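User: Sequence in, structure out. Go.
Assistant: Echoing your sequence, followed by the structure tokens.
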Amino acid sequence: MKQIIIAVVLLCTVSMTAQKKSDLLTHYEAYYKQMKAQGDTQGIINAITHLNVLAPSESRKDTLAFMYANSNQNMQALRVIGVETKDSDSNLAVQVRALALKALGDVKRAIAQFEILNKRTPNAFLAYELADLKIQTGDKAGAITNIEYGLANAKDGMKYAFYERQQPYEVPLKAAFLHLKALIEFNNNQTNPEAALALINEALAIAPNFNLAGLSKQAIEARKAEETAPKK
């Protein structure tokens, strides 16, 4: 008799726990929808965190990491999905990891993540990210390979955003690739910058608002004037 009572109590406890968990899931799913409707990023993060604790899933984890990275909480994003890649990782997880590592200045590991994405779904935007990062590490040959791919595959309407000014702006992706190519050309031959300037002028012809290219042009022209000035 005692055993029967214990079994009934345990059954009731399990049932109540399951009911409570179900109620919590319903609550946080409703809370998540409400936070999305209000555009409350931190509320969305809180909701997904609770949902992932109650019913863990890779998709929820990836979404949580994305929300962290999208709100510039890159370290938190990496703590959610980890730094090491698994073959089973979704494209979203790899993308978040790549962007978070790039934002944190971990260039070499960011390149590794972008390379994984580029093998899965090669495109001109990934080629630009890789070229830009490879220039920073001194891998000019690798950068040129990505630039040539990008120039061949950048379509009209593809834009890339820049943030070096207080007001962000966009330029055609082809212009962005021409600017990177100019930087490599100048680095290879600083005593004769005409080829680099020609590429920058081509980029500016496509995108007159390309502030970063304009700054590069000024710097190269200043260096050219310095080199050709009469020695005192």
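User: And one key feature?
Assistant: Strands lie at 159-162, 169-172.
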